[in-house]
Give the backbone structure.
Amino acid sequence: MAKKGDKAFLEPQARRLYADGSSLTSIGSILDVSVTTLVRWKSETKQPHCDVDEWDRARSQKRGNIQRLRDLFEDQLLFLEGISARERSASMMDTLSKMGALLERWDKMEKAQRVADDVVKEVRKAGLTSETVDDIRRQILGIGE
């Protein structure tokens, strides 16, 4: 388990993982922090006048941005399909290509995070040490650096 004083290092990582869609249980396994501690950290970010805490707001905003990009991509694609090839400009096609690349990168990152979470769970089940889990995450999966 994380030691007292690790919050400054671990809390930003936990918040990022949560915004990316990981569950508190999964984050706890990845960072070796109890779910109770994560719930406390999360609740500490709630302002009295707000309905949601900063973690939930970041998650919602990130998902909202990605969904807006997906919607924009679909709109652009439908528009380009509706016009003739002569009416299509290089900049239109470039924009569509860039949006598609961003969405593809996002999907790959989401998939890598899910795989990383599964690997960490299995490694912990096998009884390996936290140091070994951290090494696997850092060296093989590129997470936690």
The chain has one domain: 7-141. DSSP finds six helices and no strands in the chain.
